């Protein structure tokens, strides 16, 4: 679970899956996926928690939402903010508009270095678990009982060690706290390696008995030791094959409805069951190992799903009961393991009854949210797991820490979970909070990086939609695996096709691929990938930011606009229909000399009796040109001549922001449509627009740069905000399809400083959006 002893260390994520083929089929046809009664969750709001910061705190200060809970009326959400050493309060009475209600600093309750690790509500009180440890070898902590109505602490209970997670039973008569006494990943125990166990003192579990829930003064704490009095291993732990039984390190706790307490020992790859009434350990079993194939295991910039892991410890983090017999674990892994999935165990036998295998890894690839930078580590990293009953329908909610999604499962049959839908989140979903009484799911995402524009948030999802609205685009399977994709920063219609478009990958990957998109289905489908190669067949790596599909009458193939790391590296590249590079056109040196890294961003073409004419946009102004004037270039393929026009960019006063061009497409009447956008995202996003420009009838004199008149065609910002998510920065794809629809896409940067969500949609008919000259 979330804690910060030497910085943020995430912990519990939840996940559930069905058979891989069934889940992928369900995503491919979301309207008929898993839910037996046809109801789906839809996102209603996303709230950036820096907006709930205390007075005097800077906007750029790290402010996170990790573990969350909700008041008994389901209208006030309370979350931990370890970075700010506080807890926050949100008004969620209106799911469409989350409002900040301020924060409570732990400095007011104890010390400025105190860190909240978890929270839960019991009756009129919120219990805040606080880590007060001076060091790893001197662990300490407490639980503060705060009256919600006036945010006053009414009692503080010493825990005797460093706490992690907390959970209350359904009746509100017992609370369990995992006292992890976590290991120092940089310490080396005698005879071991850096980060190894054992690192004492051993962790344990505290159970608070609340015989009178309304009177915290009567609450009593009971320590449940997980080792013998002399520190030696319990026989049941040793017999179960627990990795280092003298140092159990409990991680996550969860109550069943009939009073069993499940505890995960993440680093020890084990699960402990405790009878909550008697405070006695009733069962211990190993989480075992798993072998998973058909996954990407190399961080090489290529989505290669032919890798495998063999006999890897599951090392479960979050745990949740599916019913009174079966429990599920999110197998995030830690120092030795992590199997990229989740598992259902029979609590009576300790045996595995279902395991997701590679299902969620495939799902991440299919929806374009595969994190290639994590492929060589623990992949999607399922960290938290939550289950709940919504009006008789049981669900499991599974969150991917690295691929930024929550997968929803129907667990009516505990031994056979069925995939229902996938929900996009912001970065690092940590807290998964079902609120069945109000038909809501709340997800708090902890990653907060103001410099990158990735901020921690709380998102709400409401049950009741007749179909799933996400994803808007996905890939189909080829040879048993979904086509790998991401970074849809360019679009072009395919000539003579009503419902096919193409896009191209950029520098987010180490090889370049041209993607064919079928827009006739919902969601749209990526049906083909064409690798770009040189004449010897070797894959090439291009930072392709624009694409134009050439008509068959001109030989077919594609033009790509390639952005360079320097001005001189910008070029237009012609690729034949087999994907082989056939021609390269460099950016003229007199233009390139004034550019840094922001060069070519789009390419389109027109045809007349004089042949093929390319139009390419340069993202930002050259240092040799007037301020805020970007270039649009026309290249005559036959003569090799460039002609340049100026485009006046909007201005911004926001620190760190800039305005630039991101795409160009030729309209049927000779005008050009361009995307002009800012660098801002989330609630700060302002300029995401499509303008049209009309070229003069007479070419400008050589050496001049006439500024074209521009006309606003459509403000795309409302379309990007319509999904109630984190507004994407990189509106970069634009084209008019053969069906007359105007299509847009966002570049998800291959999840590098991005949520990974791709917006792909039609924003209307071209004749209505662009009108006439």
TrEMBL record:
InterPro entries: Choice_anch_I, Mesenchyme-surface_protein, Phytase-like_dom, Quino_amine_DH_bsu, WD40/YVTN_repeat-like_dom_sf. Residues 65-335 form the Choice-of-anchor I domain. Residues 484-749 form the Phytase-like domain. The keyword Acyltransferase does not apply. Gene3D superfamilies: YVTN repeat-like/Quinoprotein amine dehydrogenase (2.130.10.10). It comes from the Bacteria. It holds the Pfam family Phytase-like. Keywords: Signal. This is Phytase-like protein with esterase activity. It comes from Kineosporia succinea.
